[in-house]
Amino acid sequence: MTLTAKNVSVSYDESVLDDVSIGVESGQVLTIVGPSGTGKTTLLRLLAMFRRPDSGTVVWDGDDVWGLSEAERLTIRRRVSMVFQEPSLFNASVSQNVMYGNRVRQSWNERIRRRVRDFLGDQSLSESAHTALETVGLLDKQDQNALSLSGGEAQRVAFARALAVNPEFMLLDEPSSNLDPRNTAVIEDAILRAKDRGVGVVVATHDMNQAERISDQVGFIYEGELVETGPPAQVFSNPNDRRTKRFVDGELMYEVDEEETSPQMTPTSSLE
Ligand SMILES: Nc1ncnc2c1ncn2[C@@H]1O[C@H](COP(=O)(O)OP(=O)(O)OP(=O)(O)O)[C@@H](O)[C@H]1O
């Protein structure tokens, strides 16, 4: 099974992604690395089928998803879980958050929350939710209110929630930014365990060390262009492109004006 962006381009006021082609297979971890504001989140959103690219498409196991009917695309989309940079948990127990899945992913309001809470009621932990919570080491917190968790624990719950729906693919946007080393290690271990179970995982990160630890393949993206792809050892130790080398050397953590000699210290932030 493969999930692939094929020649995708996206523009808002200016070009955000330019003719990018990259994909992931089941049981593989692909990491998209690059400085802030360079198009990583946008690429994940395309792979999640939240947005249609201006040109190009997303291919699911040979099918052009934007050539399918909406119902067919929705069916496929349900097999892909995305975890956003900021976990949005609702005011209920950890187990309810995990069982709630990603049925209503983005735009839920108080009424929907209440309905979900009523619906879940007294249900005990489902098998997949149990496995997911175990994977992130939070079984002992299943009855705790999710809003009382630490930032790291909340990220782990968001990951468990995405895993509990038994997705074919998981798309993770900066899954451990701002997390301490222990929580980061738990998330990375959970990613590798999901991969071992056959899930294809795409991780967007600006952390090269993380990419090196977890990736089968790395794609370096800069100013909307996919500059280089390959196994991490090759991309990080023996890059082909001057821009990759500068990123590896720590010179491109921020968007750089090519005319400037030093980086502009004005990182752009994700719109998530
Ligand atoms: N809906 C939108 N409307 C206008 N501009 C957008 C929109 N979404 C993204 N952009 C712009 O596209 C560019 C790339 O954003 P994106 O979030 O994909 O980058 P990123 O690499 O994920 O950054 P970060 O690492 O900071 O999250 C940014 O300049 C951003 O402002």
From TrEMBL:
It holds the Pfam family ABC_tran. GO terms for molecular function: ATP binding. Residues 1-248 form the ABC transporter domain. SUPFAM superfamilies: P-loop containing nucleoside triphosphate hydrolases. The keyword Translocase does not apply. It comes from the Archaea. The keyword Membrane applies. Transmembrane segments: none annotated. Keywords: ATP-binding, Cell membrane, Membrane, Nucleotide-binding, Transport. This is Phosphate ABC transporter ATP-binding protein.
